[in-house]
Write a structure and sequence with these properties.
- The chain is of the alpha/beta class and 819 residues long.
- The chain has 19 helices and 37 strands.
- Helix 3 runs antiparallel to helix 6.
- The longest helix has 19 residues.
Length: 819
């Protein structure tokens, strides 16, 4: 989230796509209703189903699953052609004026530089044009140069007329135009709008570009950085944001630092690939805050290795694990199944053991049969969980999952019982980036232990083995700093202190070396005090400031709100730096005056920026630095070469395409998408599987847990698995409401009760009728036998977004039959 839950109350327009907040975030959804009551805000919902969110919307527009980019680019076109964009904002705070080099082009579905053999782009062809006389790049403040970003964007989206949006998305033209009129009403200083989304955008082979299209629309309308604006991601669980911040995926270290690769043998080489070159050296300069990367990295290494990390040994960088391939979890399971892994040096044996901690990969899929088959090839597996999940008993999977006979499975399974969320303290970092402390309610039952004790005991046991027996690079374990009061069960308050950061020696004011701002041993106030000489430690620079000398700021609970905008700066701690709205310099014009004086994010008072914690050097006058301090340009990117599948979004069909792409049938799906090719990885065609299918969640179920409630009280709210089928399709198939039906994809089939509904509209796509169906994800074969059901991901394909390797759960092809 660029903004936050409470901030939604400040908006004039909400565009809800890719998420059903009333169903999946019912407490947060109250801020939608506050905006409607307090500001008469308009709510537009674009979704394949008429959801609980749609039920209270001002405008609902149906859409074919997976076509959101076409809809969003249609909105961008509408804003540009009708001059309903915030021109002053666009010129000041985006790269719209920047001229792109002559090598960039787009033809028939492909951007310049595509290598068909590799399925990858040469992104060096997407660069800015160099400026004259040593300038960093060429700009056109008038936005008239045919190769400036604004004009290239205008040309790119010109194809996405309301008629084309209807042709691709199935959205009736009149409904699209109603949404367009309301959303683009915020393209000015007086009004502001927000976009909210969740996994309905994320889980596609074009998921990153969907989100990017939303961000581009918000930049064009001038809605980023402003109270009531932003691009607000609703995370699927209460601490998903915190997990992501703290190295939740293999390619990042805590604080989104880059995981080093094998060829980078020292910090100097590592920094060369990690720190971007400042581009903007004319007009407003870029702070390019990543120039502080060494401070973040060295402080992280000091937190990791303590006194063993010194300047002479590159602060222990040599001990930090390096990656030599793709270790995202879908690739791990493919390696497990194939028994071999592709690495930088070639093929090598695949993994033979797995620790799965609070994750249920057999349930999460995709392609559940492959998950079961992969686990059946391991020597051992440790499952750390509250309940006995499908993963823990994969060897008991019903025959339709096609696993080997249990007697033929060599995998030894250890199930470690873990404390539930109410049985341990610590922090949750919510979607709004708030680190909020939670207090333990009761002790875990039986032998169940808290996460930190399980991890600590494993670590200490493995370290002890290396200390006694040695091994390959034992320093990786033996030099890890583990100075907690109780090493076998660390206090999470101590851990949070370590993550927040402290001084290991006196820290001096950079502007006055005689002034000591922190003495050795003190907690730091924030990441601005981190050093790159080994005198500070910090486990996650983004969270720095959460635990200061004033105490544990995650425990703060003051509801004082001097701004009147719901910022609540003394309630918990919001990363970064307790800032409530990111990029808030963009909430003001070139002179530092708020676009809307009634909703000021920050403003220049003649000496400093006041309001929210400024996303800017606090005493830097307007015109000194650009608003987007983490980017080398200092401005938001309407055009970006950072993505693996194009500098602009483009509509591509799902990997299992329901139609040939109406815009470029020779390039139907994302040309850079990733998929696997084992005998388990099979993909359907529209001829065999003519129905579009999607998945979703229910308020009454918590992911895969509720089926484990043995007393059945929670299950009574949604007692069994069901399949939503539009009335017209049910009539066509002779399916009665409540009868049993089968849904079949290329990978398998599931059975459930038919729920015949008006909530799924008949669509016309590319001139032909098309049906969509959907079902919730919450069931599986583990748990209370009275409440088990099929795994939804039995049907989903092993296809991925090329930027994040997120599976395409939300759009795939099926056929429907009576059971």
């Amino acid at each position: 989230m660029t903004n936050g839950w409470v901030d939604i109350k400040n908006t004039d327009v909400i565009l809800a796509m890719g998420g059903n907040a009333a169903e999946n975030h019912p407490v947060g959804f109250k801020w939608f209703m506050e905006a409607r009551r307090g500001r008469n805000a308009k709510l537009c919902v674009v979704d394949p189903r008429f959801t609980r969110t749609a039920a209270v919307a001002d405008v609902y527009a149906p859409i074919r699953a997976g076509t959101d980019i076409a809809f969003l680019l249609g909105l961008i076109r509408y804003a540009i052609e009708n001059k309903r964009y915030h021109e002053d904002y666009v010129k000041i705070h985006t790269n719209a004026p920047y001229v792109i080099g002559e090598k960039f082009d787009f033809n028939d579905g492909l951007f310049a530089g595509f290598d068909e053999g590799k399925g990858e782009y040469d992104k060096t062809l997407w660069g800015y044009e160099a400026g004259a006389k040593g300038g960093a790049y060429k700009v056109d403040p008038t936005l008239e140069d045919p190769r400036c970003v604004f004009q290239l964007l205008r040309k790119h989206v010109a194809r996405y007329t309301p008629e084309v949006v209807e042709q691709v998305c199935g959205t009736p033209k009149d409904q699209f135009l109603k949404v367009a009129e309301i959303v683009t009403s915020t393209g000015n200083a007086a009004r502001v709008g927000t976009i909210t989304y969740a996994l309905g955008w994320t889980q596609h082979s074009t998921g990153v570009q969907m989100i990017r299209a939303g961000a581009m629309l918000q930049l064009l309308l001038g809605n980023v950085g402003r109270p009531g604006g932003g691009v607000n991601a609703f995370r699927g669980h209460s601490n998903i944001q915190g997990a992501t911040d703290t190295a939740g995926t293999f390619e990042i270290l805590p604080g989104y630092l880059k995981t080093p690769t094998g060829p980078l043998t020292n910090l100097k080489e590592y920094y060369e690939g990690a720190i971007p070159t400042t581009l903007n050296k004319q007009a407003w300069a870029s702070m390019n805050y990543w120039v502080n990367y060494p401070k973040f990295m060295v402080s992280l290494l000091k937190a990791q290795y303590g006194n063993a990390a010194t300047k002479d040994n590159d602060f222990g960088y040599q001990w930090l694990p390096k990656v030599d391939g793709n270790y995202s979890w879908m690739y791990i399971f493919d390696d497990m199944y194939r028994g071999k892994a592709t690495r930088a040096g070639g093929e090598e044996p695949g993994p033979e053991a797995l620790i799965t901690f609070g994750m249920n990969p057999v349930g999460l899929g995709p392609n559940s049969k492959k998950m079961v088959a992969a686990l059946a090839k391991q020597k051992w597996m440790v499952v750390v969980e509250n309940v006995e999940t499908e993963t823990a008993i994969f060897w008991k999977a019903p025959k339709e999952y096609e696993g080997p006979e249990p007697s033929q499975i060599p995998t030894e399974v250890f199930l470690l019982p873990a404390a539930d969320f109410a049985e341990k303290d610590g922090t949750f970092t919510n979607s709004a980036r708030w680190l909020q402390w939670k207090w333990k309610a009761l002790d875990p039952p039986g032998q169940a232990k808290a996460d930190q004790e399980i991890l600590a005991r494993l670590f200490l046991a493995v370290r002890d083995l290396y200390q006694k027996e040695g091994g390959a690079l034992p320093e990786q374990l033996t030099n890890v700093s583990w100075s907690y009061t109780n090493p076998a069960d660390p206090d999470l308050g101590e851990v949070l202190k370590e993550m927040s950061g402290k001084a290991l020696a006196d820290v001096h004011d950079p502007n006055d070396k005689t002034k000591v701002v922190k003495t050795a041993g003190q907690q730091l106030d924030g990441f601005g005090q981190l050093m790159d000489d080994g005198t500070t430690l910090c486990g996650n620079w983004l969270h720095s400031g959460v635990y200061t000398e004033a105490g544990n700021n995650a425990q703060r609970r003051s509801n004082a709100d001097p701004t009147g905008l719901g910022m609540f700066h003394n309630w918990a701690f919001s990363w970064p730096a307790n800032r409530r709205v990111m990029y808030n310099r963009a909430s003001a014009d070139a002179n530092g005056k708020p676009w809307d004086p009634k909703r000021p994010g920050i403003q220049w008072n003649g000496q400093k920026w006041v309001g929210d914690v400024p996303d800017m050097k606090p005493d830097a006058p307007p015109g000194t630095y650009g608003a987007f301090i983490m980017l080398p340009e200092g401005v938001g990117r309407l055009f970006s070469a950072a993505f693996n599948d194009g500098p602009f979004p483009e509509h591509y069909e799902a990997v299992e395409a329901a139609v040939a792409n109406p815009l470029h049938p020779n390039v139907t799906s994302n040309p850079a998408f990733k998929k696997f090719t084992s005998d388990k990885d099979v993909y359907g065609t529209k001829e065999e599987f003519p129905i579009v299918c999607t998945t979703y969640r229910l308020t009454e179920h918590f992911h895969y847990w509720t089926q484990h409630q043995h007393d059945g009280r929670l299950n009574e709210l949604q007692p069994g698995f069901f399949i939503e089928i539009p009335e017209g399709l049910a009539k066509e198939k002779g399916i009665a409401n409540g009868s049993q039906v089968k849904v079949i994809s290329k990978r398998g089939q599931i059975q459930g009760m038919a729920m015949v509904t008006k909530r799924l509209y008949p669509l016309t796509v590319d001139g032909k009728p098309m049906w969509q169906i959907g079902f919730p994800i919450h069931w599986g074969f583990a748990g209370d036998p009275a409440h088990t059901g099929p795994l939804a991901n039995t049907l989903t394909p092993s296809a991925m977004d090329p930027n994040t390797w997120t599976p395409e759960y939300k759009a795939f092809l099926v056929k429907l039959e009576k059971a």
